[in-house]
Amino acid sequence: MNLINRVFSKTVETLLRVDSRQKLSILIYHRVLPERDPMRPFEPTVDEFDWQMKVLTRFFQPISLTEAVSALDGDNLPSRAVCVTFDDGYADNEQFAIKTLQKWQVPATFFIATGFLNGGRMWNDSVIEAVRNARGAVLDLRQVGLDRFTLENINQRRQGAENIIASVKHRDAADREKLVEDIASIVGEPLPDDLMMSDAQVVNLRKNGMEIGAHTVNHLILRKMGDKSDAEKEIGESRRYLEALLGEAIDFFAYPNGKFDRDYSLDHRDLVESMGFRAALSTEWGVSNRATDRFQLPRFTPWDKTPLRFTGRLINNYRNLR
Ligand SMILES: [Zn+2]
Question: What is the CATH number of the domain that holds 93?
């Protein structure tokens, strides 16, 4: 080991001794891509995910979510405990991420929005792929109340897709669905139907020792849904689908988008508990301990592109107890 490596290891060890005791860090991922996608620059590549999992096994204690929740309840969490989770159900989870997880023996939990399995596509992906595939250097969306976008290079395409996503994000679900369909038909190019997992891929993750959780059917923001019975249906149907597929109970739920108050309320938190889930995960940043609400376990992922910064930010997160 060279000097820098030794100093780095020592520093990490010292910092972790102070901050990681009896605290659980849960990482959130969505996708792992075979190579950098300029339309999705923040998604890790297989190579980046590989060193991230290496960091976890070297300095932390990766455990399954089931073990983690039991350990929180039993007050016997190993120090430096960390869980890995994936949201939404992208096919690359089963095609690429699982190989790295197995290589480093890191257990993970995959939260599936069941309505997109077997050829579906989330609306934001439809926008990204439509703008990526649009022919010519201009995409004029003024007829549907949006802008005229210049698409001369990939950066402009990424920016264009981001702008469209930002301007349609907060519309109600039916309007948004219609608008995204209109955009796709103006573009007139085929969109991929293999972004999300098939049933068989979900089964394969489970067969390989990974855990599966519910993430609603249509990934609608609970806070924006009419009433409690609609939310209950979205949550319950995704759970029942996965239970039928896997032949076992589904114990965990992750709130779509996952920010408290903006995306879900205390009523939804209580609903998830009353439905008999064992725990639910938000996307609020931070770590958990014994006292943390099991139905609002926070998550966090460092976004850094170097192991040093990634590790530093992960250590720093242990100070953010919720
Ligand atoms: Zn999600």
Answer: 3.20.20.370
Question: pTM of this prediction?
Answer: 0.95
Q: Specify whether 110 is located in the same domain as 134.
A: no
* Claim to verify: residue 261 and residue 154 sit in the same structural domain: no
Q: 318: Cβ–Cβ under 8 A, 6 or more apart, which residues?
A: 16, 19, 20, 23, 25, 287
What is d(CA 173, CA 225) in angstroms, rounded to the nearest whole number? 9
5 C-alpha vs ligand 1 centroid, how far in Å? Answer: 36
pLDDT 10s digits, 221-260: 999 987 889 999 999 999 999 999 999 999 999 999 999 9
Q: What's the CA-to-centroid distance between 235 and ligand 1, angstroms?
A: 13
Q: Which helix (H) or strand (E) holds 140?
A: strand 138-140
Distance from the CA of 13 to the center of ligand 1, in angstroms? 33
Average pLDDT in the 61-87 region?
95
- How many angstroms separate the CA atoms of 88 and 114, rounded? 8
**Do both 286 and 207 map to the same domain?**
yes
Q: How far is the CA of 216 from the centre of ligand 1 (A)?
A: 9
d(CA 231, CA 237): 10
List helix spans (H) across the chain.
3-19, 46-59, 65-74, 91-92, 98-103, 123-133, 154-168, 173-187, 199-207, 228-246, 266-274, 307-317
- What separation in Å is there between the alpha carbon of 88 and the centre of ligand 1? 5
Averaged pLDDT of the chain: 94
Cβ proximity of 273 and 259 under 8 Å: no
For residue 64, give Cα distances in angstroms to 34, 275, 298.
25, 22, 15
Between the CA of 186 and the centroid of ligand 1 the distance, in Å, is: 27
**93 CA to middle of ligand 1, Å?**
14
**What is the spatial distance between Cα 315 and Cα 25, in angstroms, rounded to a whole number?**
9
Q: Are 315 and 291 in contact (CB under 8 A)?
A: no
Token readout for 140 is 């004029």
| Listed residues 187, 219, 237: the one ending a domain | 187
